[in-house]
């Protein structure tokens, strides 16, 4: 597994959402948050979505209360969209063997 972590340094893991090594400090995370203006929408169907007219919710560091970023609050329409996409993907996912699923989760 050490070889896989070496292929995906943590900074790249955040960008690609690939499996990789754990964070040893917060500097890389804060740099990644800054790169995204510390503001996130909804990750639906493999893409970031930013629907209009949604409230921003602060995401806070539990140990200090520091606001690290904001994310959009979901409404019923957003949840329905995400659930619909997940349902379509489930049809493909459910026919895979556990071994095949693990390859996706730990690649």
From TrEMBL:
GO molecular-function terms, A-Z: oxidoreductase activity
InterPro entries per record: Ald_DH/histidinol_DH, Ald_DH_N
SUPFAM superfamilies associated with the record: ALDH-like
Protein name: Aldehyde dehydrogenase 16A1
Organism: Elysia marginata
Lineage of origin: Eukaryota, Metazoa, Spiralia, Lophotrochozoa, Mollusca
């Amino acid at each position: 597994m050490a070889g896989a972590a070496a292929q995906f340094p943590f900074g790249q893991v955040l960008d690609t959402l690939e499996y990789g090594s754990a964070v040893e400090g917060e500097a890389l995370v804060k740099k990644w948050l800054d790169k995204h203006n510390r503001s996130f929408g909804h990750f639906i169907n493999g893409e970031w979505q930013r629907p209009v007219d949604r409230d921003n919710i602060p995401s806070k560091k539990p140990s200090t209360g520091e606001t690290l970023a904001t994310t959009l609050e979901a409404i019923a329409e957003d949840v329905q969209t995400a659930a619909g996409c997940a349902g379509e993907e489930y049809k493909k996912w459910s026919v895979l063997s556990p071994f095949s699923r693990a390859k996706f989760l730990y690649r």
